[in-house]
Structures are given as C-alpha cells and as structure tokens.
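Course assignment 3, question 2. Fill in each field.
Student: A.L.
Task: Predict the tertiary structure for the chain below.
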Amino acid sequence: MGKRTKARECAFQMLYQWDITREPIDRVIEAFWRVRSTTDETRGRAERLARGARQHVEAIDEAVTAAATHWRFDRIAGVDRNILRLATYELMMEPETPAPVVLDEAVEMAKRFGEADSPAFVNGVLDGVMRRVRGGEGKEAKGVRGA
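Answer field:
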C-alpha cells in the first residue's frame, strides 16, 4: 500500500471516529496515533486530510447531499459518509490531486470497509460531486462504471 493510500485510510478512520464520537478532531487524532504508527510523512498527510475535512464538513456535506440524489444525508451509512467526506474534501480543496485518483482511492476504500453496494454508491455520488466542483474533470473510477 502506497503512502498516500495509507494516509487516506488513516484520515478516513479518524473522520469515522470523529463522526461517531463528536470529540474534538485534535483529541481523535491524538487517540488514533496511540494505537497506530506510520512514517512522519504519512502521519502528516493523514492529519492534514482529517483536519481539513473536519474544518469544511458543512460545505462538504452540502456537496455530498446535492450529489446523492434520492438519498437523505443522514441515511447514508457511516462508512460511506466518511469516505465521501474525505474524497469530497480532496476534490474541493486539493485540486492538484487528479479527480480520477480521488475517485479510485475512495472506491477502493469502499470495497475494503463498506458493504457490497458501497463501491458503486460512492463512485456515483463522487462522480456527481466531481462534476459540480471540477466541471466534470476525469471519468468515473475504473472498473466500477455501471456497477
């Protein structure tokens, strides 16, 4: 697993923990690293992503809600919701990361941590977010189109 993938996975886990507990993100991050270890580079990237997504959570949740047609935000599974938050943060606030990379990484996390239908759901919602935020840059994640 690459460093960026590992950082995204750690950031997702921190966001999920924050979403469940609603503890301050700094406290969540501190507790997370008590039981995990990684390189300083990966840790720094993971913390930047988790803090950034938390800081912009209202705008991110609005973007996800707009793209998740026929789904109420509060009905989206916690795993999917936080994968979507992380990826939407990257799409909105880190334009140097190519959209197809963001979508592919999110779909892979959905395969690993979500339910059977999570990858297709995450891909569909993020495709809608990407079209709104980046004007349709890139394509849907590989191997998931039409799933």
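Instructor remarks: The chain has seven helices and no strands. The helical segments are 3-21, 25-35, 40-55, 57-67, 78-93, 99-113, 118-134.
Grade: pending
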